[in-house]
Design goal:
The chain is α+β, with helices and mostly antiparallel strands. Helices cover 23% and strands 41% of the residues. The chain starts with a helix and ends in an 11-residue tail after the last strand.
């Protein structure tokens, strides 16, 4: 029988490469956390925040015109619930809304169209409701409810405004949205983007950027 040395030595080499490839694949999979774990870490992080600032671009489909509308804002928050919203683009461009519990626990203050709202406005006024739904804590409470019993799938890494993020898709949740996509900042473990879909079509979404976590905001910045 003729002994083929090259063939004999090639088989162990191929086997070693296969084992190495499998080990590398397993390590790569181990580096990617479970999507539900990422989501839970994001929820926990939101409870640890002392203060933060960010910009956001909110888009939604107008129910009447069926056209996509955009609102671009600056938002500042400080515990326990100081908040300030400045509208840079959109229907209420130029408006500023502020809630400062040191000044009043029952009213919000601000400017509309550049004109100051004299005497403020009761915080439970219906037109003020959206203002108190802005912020990471509120977004995550809503996401927790909307993704209940849903299937979480990690779609891998992505970037949002130049920051690395984990991209997660949630389907099958017991709510009106059949799909929700969530982007979580890898460094700060905070929400960077979310999109809602109804019957496979985009309904609304928000992109969060220019993030500053725990910058040490003073209460005097919360004024109109």
């Amino acid at each position: 029988m003729k002994w083929n040395a090259p063939q004999w030595t090639l088989r162990p080499a191929v086997l070693c490469l296969a084992v190495l490839f499998a080990a590398t694949s397993l390590c790569a999979a181990a580096d990617k956390p479970a999507p539900d774990k990422i989501f839970q870490e994001m929820l926990k992080q939101s409870l640890k925040l002392k203060d933060y600032t960010f910009k956001f671009d909110h888009s939604e489909i107008n129910a009447k015109t069926k056209k996509e509308e955009h609102t671009v804002c600056d938002f500042l928050w400080k515990e326990p619930d100081y908040r300030k919203l400045t509208v840079n683009e959109g229907q209420h461009k130029g408006s500023i809304v502020v809630y400062n519990p040191d000044k009043s626990k029952t009213k919000v203050f601000g400017k509309q169209g550049g004109m100051e709202i004299p005497g403020g406005m009761p915080k439970d006024t219906k037109m003020v409701e959206p203002f108190f739904k802005v912020g990471w804590q509120n977004d995550l409470m809503e996401l927790k409810k909307l993704t209940r019993d849903g299937k979480f799938t990690l779609d891998g890494e992505d970037t949002v405004k130049g920051r690395k993020a984990w991209k997660i898709t949630v389907t099958g949740a017991k709510d009106k949205y059949d799909k929700i996509i969530i982007w979580v900042d890898q460094k700060e473990k905070v929400l960077m983007r979310h999109e809602y879909y109804i019957k496979g079509k985009f309904d609304s979404g928000t992109v969060i950027y220019d993030i500053k976590v725990n910058p040490g905001l003073k209460s005097d910045v919360f004024k109109p």
